[in-house]
Design goal:
The protein is mostly helical. Helix content is 80%, strand content 0%. The chain is built from 4 helices and no strands. Helix 1 crosses helix 2. The model has no long low-confidence stretch (mean pLDDT 79).
């Protein structure tokens, strides 16, 4: 029955061709992924002595995995602190205090003086 559908129905034939091309593409991708996995395991095995030597050697640098773990824990702590801050009701302590009345007086005087200079030149 499948042979008859492929040979007599043009839509079924094109569908079967598409399925075959997709299956060959999937098979090619599987071979590429398998080759990459094999390379990965090989390179990881080759790097193990170097990694062991780097871990033993005293230096100021840190292992990338340890640095990434530390960075991730800092990021999680910041996110947790932000969520706690956003979930708590707003408090007056977080808002900046309004400026005192006397702090604006010198600024007003300087603005008035500059304005007077600009208007007197005309």
């Amino acid at each position: 029955l499948a042979l008859c559908q492929e040979s007599f129905d043009p839509a079924a034939k094109t569908h079967a061709d598409k399925i075959r091309t997709l299956e060959t593409g999937v098979q090619e991708l599987r071979t590429v992924v398998n080759a990459l996995e094999n390379k990965q395991t090989l390179y990881l095995e080759w790097f193990k002595p170097t990694e062991a030597a780097l871990l033993i050697q005293p230096s100021d640098s840190s292992h990338p995995v340890a640095a990434l773990t530390a960075w991730d824990s800092q990021r999680k702590a910041k996110i947790t602190a932000y969520k706690q801050l956003m979930s708590s009701p707003p408090s007056a302590q977080l808002l900046p205090a309004p400026p005192a009345a006397d702090t604006c007086a010198p600024l007003d005087w300087a603005v008035k003086r500059a304005f007077a200079r600009c208007t007197s030149r005309k």
